[in-house]
Design brief:
single chain, alpha+beta, Alpha-Beta Plaits, four-stranded antiparallel β-sheet, 2 helices, about 20% helix, about 35% strand
Length: about 110
């Protein structure tokens, strides 16, 4: 691990219905996020019971997770943009401190 230079960033894991993917990715793009990962067809159990991750009728009927590593200064604007959404829709956001290599991949 001596050859790696690690930088501290924040990780957001945004879970929401696939029908709202464009809302979330537009918010991230407008905040200046340079990239993210989208995982489709999530399964899990929460307050509303078990959710199966298979496609029912289309890709909008599933839960997705958008994972993004961002500098700390982007956290507040993104969370402010998500707050009104989550007051009306199901889902959750996880925020954690992480270390990444190749910081150039996470800045514009």
């Amino acid at each position: 691990m001596k050859n790696f230079n690690f930088s501290s960033v924040k990780k957001l894991e945004i879970i929401l219905s696939g029908e709202h993917q464009a809302f979330a990715t537009d918010l991230l793009d407008n905040a200046g996020v340079t990239g993210y990962t989208i995982i489709n067809n999530l399964s899990g159990k929460g307050r509303h019971g078990f959710h199966e991750g298979h496609l029912m009728f289309n890709e909008e009927d599933v839960l997705i997770m958008i994972i993004v590593a961002i500098p700390e200064e982007l956290v507040e604007p993104i969370l402010e943009g998500l707050e009104p959404f989550y007051s009306e829709h199901t889902g959750v956001v996880f925020l954690s401190d992480i270390q990444v290599t190749r910081m150039v991949k996470f800045s514009s």
